[in-house]
Amino acid sequence: MCDVTPPAQRTLAPHAESARQARRFLEENDCPAHHSRVLDEAELLTTELVANAVAHGGPPITLRVTCDGTPGMAVAVSDGNPEPPVAREASPEATSGRGVALVDLLSDAWGVQPADSGKEVWFHLSP
To answer: Does the pTM exceed 0.85?
Structure first.
């Protein structure tokens, strides 16, 4: 674990404003020693996961950010639906459907695991 920044967690409401709140939460809990080079990507991927949780998962929606002491960041979003997210093929003119593909492309690792009230989708970023 990081000696500078403890893990942080926040419950989010199931509405569109939650993605903005999630980005702000990441900024407020940014580890100055380890996260600076991955914060922008973490905000993008967190926005996608929170938007998916709002649209497809339902409450309770929880965001957790962890610094493991390495130059990177671990983020997890849990929601009330046990069904894992599904990667879709989005057409070039589609306005949605790329979230899982972005997480897969930009993160070092990601996955889904069962949670008490549904599932948790997590990712890890390294610079």
So the answer is: yes
